[in-house]
Design brief:
The chain has four helices and five strands, in the order E-E-E-H-E-H-E-H-H. The protein is of the alpha+beta class and 145 residues long. The protein has a domain of 99 residues: 2-Layer Sandwich (Double Stranded RNA Binding Domain). The strands form two sheets. Strands 3-4-5 form a three-stranded antiparallel β-sheet. A two-stranded antiparallel ribbon has the order 1-2. The N and C termini lie far apart (92 Å).
Length: 145
């Protein structure tokens, strides 16, 4: 059975032949139908053997999605929300697309900045205010009477 390609981004498309599905019985809605049909779906993709990712992208996907991957480097995404296998397949494809897209996104590095003079003033003012408040909570000393 031929698979459709999975477009992650405009310039990144996972070919259909790299993806495969397995179907299992699922709990949840469906009554007797769910007990007799294999409607839960798991979409598999071997990241390690992928022809569309370079080494750095493979590492990024492995690092960010390691809890959804097997030791062999196969990414697994499951769906069992719907009563039909067809809709669960669509759902699994959407979830994989979203996860891989997020895993490949590079996080922006934070540029350290120095606190402004005004922010230092506010911080010190708040510290003094808190200190006074705590001082007022104490019971008065004998000398203060």
């Amino acid at each position: 059975m031929g698979q459709e390609d999975l477009e992650i981004r405009r310039n990144l498309v996972i070919p259909g032949w790299e993806l495969w599905f397995t179907a299992t019985g699922s709990g949840g809605p469906g009554g007797q139908h769910a007990n007799t049909s294999n409607t839960a779906v798991t979409l598999h993709w071997s990241v390690a053997d992928s022809s569309v990712l370079d080494q750095s992208q493979k590492q990024r996907v492995r690092r960010n999605l390691k809890r959804n991957m097997t030791k062999a480097g196969v990414l697994q995404v499951s769906a069992s929300d719907h009563r039909s296998q067809h809709r669960n397949r669509k759902e699994a494809r959407q979830r994989m697309k979203k996860q891989v897209r997020k895993a490949l996104r590079k996080k922006k590095r934070r540029i350290r900045t120095r606190p402004t003079r005004a922010s230092k003033r506010r911080r010190l003012k708040n510290k003094r205010h808190r200190g006074r408040k705590k001082k007022l909570r104490k019971s008065p000393k004998r000398d203060d009477w």
